[in-house]
Design brief:
about 5% strand, alpha+beta, about 675 residues, flat, 27 helices
Length: about 675
């Protein structure tokens, strides 16, 4: 076959031809090059915006041709070659990043917005082309209105529930295949046009044949398992690279592979609608007494692994501000209730919604503003120990207790057991003091402007204020911060990936409803409702607080009774110190930093010496080879080997010099040099 024919041959078939001996190595290289070139040209066509249209998503009500083509493309990718798929993913990601980077050179704001709008369209198109896995990523980004530029938000928000769907005829065949009965035997009416379509499936309105009740029927897309298998292979390579390259400069030991495995586990669970039905039932039971939260009823007998039938509940998307205001719903109350609902999920029930984007969350004007949860596929659960630690952590923050704060982190598995807590508690104490001062201080600032944050949260500060506060903290906590960085005492449990994801989504929703939204301020009044979780009941918490205040706790009484024994013990320790029988082991952070720097410098010097030695040896061997070319001794090979070793040690020397300079810059930034 010629190059044009090979370019349109599947990559898998090319490899199979090589394995079967039908292709020589030279022909294989030519065929593979043609195929890769063809793939790149396709990608260029996809991302090259030559039209004036600022919309790509077809009208799913009428344009099934484009939707069908997109669906077929996803299924083809599921059967395709992982190498080819990887090229497409990485090429797309890098192209978007480079285009956004080039915008920094554009000075005219109007022109910059127009260009960013075009890049946003390309991003949405590309995520749609790449399939459900990357549509999920777009959904997450669409909630970050405080981080992502508005032009991107306007495009990505369409991925929440307006992804091109598949035909109603195909949806009916899936329902009949899954439920094992003709559609007319189960539903009185069934709208073939979906009312919403997302990354994993689409929703059709219907009425039950037996009761006539209106329901929503969720039907899953085909080929998701295969597509996830392909995409997760590429993502696994990425996380393995992150795991190796993560410098852990913030003192946190993140296991990227475990985070990937936890993410993959939840992703596969999300395409099991039986599991989603169980999650919905549990979520509904948890909020049974909360009138301002609505969870649709699941119709169990009309649900399967790929079909889910539930009560139809009409609502307004939580980010549709205009419609919310027209209904007279209090936006601030909605923001407050969304925060309270999430805190209740985490602290009281453990089961929490990991994906609360506006496509899964709506509202209506019942009870002053009721939250409606639709999708329960991506949910996770905290263990009882982690949940108890989280409750203690929240209380320690608002009680300004650094020791309890660190105890809670250790209980949650975030702080490694046995870590040096002196530096950690010192840092925690500083941040808790600032938090407490900001929380309790009225708006308008503090008289002590050099040490306080002037009654503002970080997102309320100007860039100069943030820089000043950061500099003050580094000067005050420089040694402790460097100690934490070098010790890496923190670890990142994979479950918290989804807690943080939910927090970021919720934060974006809250700020959209109320610009002054801040979860930390909203959480303080809610603590009163968590008192029973901390000690078993509100009364027990009140008794505990009273006994602590008057010194009647068990530990207080024990300290009083054991005081003579403790004094004798201290006297014995002091005596041993005087006699030299007991030695103190201290940690000198300044010496540790000096030793680290000396080690880097010595390594750089040794590598430089080795570089010079091997370079000289290679030159000598090259000269000897020229003078004694007929001696039969492989001087040339030895010379090349010496030159390669010289290059290796030279590179290591340069790297260590950069490390020394980086450490010096860090010490200077922390005021320690």
């Amino acid at each position: 076959m010629n190059n044009e024919q090979w370019s349109k041959t599947r990559t898998t078939d090319i490899f199979q031809a090589l394995t079967a001996g039908e292709l020589r190595k030279r022909d294989f290289v030519n065929a593979l090059s043609s195929r890769i070139g063809y793939k790149f040209s396709n990608l260029k066509n996809i991302f090259d915006d030559k039209s004036d249209q600022l919309s790509y998503i077809p009208d799913i009500d009428v344009n099934w041709k484009k939707a069908k083509t997109l669906e077929q493309g996803w299924q083809a990718k599921g059967f395709g070659n992982a190498f080819s798929r990887g090229i497409g993913i990485w090429t797309f990601g890098i192209s978007i990043l480079l285009q956004e980077k080039r915008l920094k050179k554009v000075k005219d704001e109007g022109l910059k917005k127009l260009k960013r709008k075009k890049i946003a369209i390309k991003l949405r198109r590309g995520l749609l082309e790449l399939g459900p896995t990357f549509i999920k990523l777009g959904q997450l980004l669409s909630t970050r209105i405080d981080v992502i530029p508005k032009e991107y938000i306007d495009e990505l928000v369409q991925l929440q529930d307006n992804v091109p769907g598949f035909s109603g005829t195909r949806a009916i065949s899936i329902i009949e295949e899954e439920l094992g009965s003709p559609l007319n035997d189960m539903y009185l009416t069934f709208e073939t046009t979906p009312i919403a379509a997302a990354s994993l499936g689409q929703v059709h309105a219907a009425t039950l044949k037996e009761t006539g009740a209106k329901v929503a029927v969720k039907v899953q897309r085909e080929g998701l398992q295969r597509l996830f298998d392909q995409d997760l292979k590429n993502l696994k390579i990425l996380v393995q690279i992150f795991d190796k390259l993560d410098p852990k400069l913030d003192g946190a030991d993140r296991n990227w592979v475990r985070i990937y495995e936890e993410s993959a586990r939840l992703l596969y669970k999300e395409i099991d609608y039986r599991q989603e039905a169980e999650n919905a039932r549990r979520f509904k039971a948890n909020f049974a007494g909360t009138e301002w939260i609505k969870v649709p009823e699941i119709i169990e007998e009309l649900s399967s692994n790929r079909v889910l039938t539930m009560e139809y509940v009409e609502g307004i998307k939580i980010n549709n501000i205009k419609a919310i205001e027209e209904k007279g719903i209090d936006r601030k109350l909605l923001a407050k209730r969304s925060a309270e609902a999430f805190l209740t999920q985490l602290c009281r029930h453990s089961l929490f919604h990991s994906d609360p984007h506006p496509g899964n969350l709506a509202c209506d004007n019942v009870n002053g503003g009721r939250l409606i949860f639709y999708d329960f596929g991506m949910m996770d659960e905290l263990s009882p120990v982690v949940r108890a630690g989280l409750v203690n952590l929240i209380f320690s923050i608002y009680e300004n207790n650094a020791k309890l704060f660190c105890d809670a982190l250790e209980q949650m598995g975030v702080l490694k057991s046995g870590s040096d807590r002196v530096s950690i508690e010192s840092i925690a104490r500083t941040f808790l003091d600032e938090f407490s001062a900001t929380l309790n201080e009225p708006k308008g600032g503090s008289s002590n402007k050099s040490s306080q944050i002037e009654g503002k949260w970080v997102n309320e500060m100007s860039a100069d204020e943030r820089a000043r506060i950061r500099k003050e903290r580094r000067l005050k906590l420089g040694a402790e911060l460097l100690s934490v960085t070098s010790d890496v005492p923190f670890q990142f449990p994979p479950t918290f990936t989804f807690v943080f994801r939910a927090f970021t989504s919720l934060d974006g929703i809250g700020k959209g409803l109320d610009p002054s939204y801040d979860l930390t301020r909203l959480a303080k009044p809610y603590l009163r409702e968590l008192l029973d979780l901390r000690d078993g009941s509100v009364a027990a918490s009140a008794v505990k607080s009273f006994t602590k205040a008057v010194g009647w706790r068990g530990e207080d009484i024990a300290a009083t009774v054991q005081s003579p024994r403790n004094v004798a013990y201290i006297k014995d320790v002091v005596k041993k110190l005087e006699q030299g029988d007991l030695k103190l082991r201290t940690r000198v952070l300044e010496s540790e930093r000096s030793f680290q720097r000396s080690e880097l410098v010595q390594t750089a010097i040794l590598c430089a010496v080795a570089f010079g030695s091997f370079l000289n040896a290679s030159i000598i061997l090259f000269v000897i080879n020229i003078l004694n070319s007929a001696s039969g001794v492989p001087y040339l090979k030895l010379a090349r080997g010496s030159l390669a070793l010289a290059g290796l040690f030279g590179l290591k020397s340069v790297v260590n010099v950069f490390k020394v300079n980086r450490q010096d810059r860090r010490l200077k930034s922390y005021g320690l040099r």
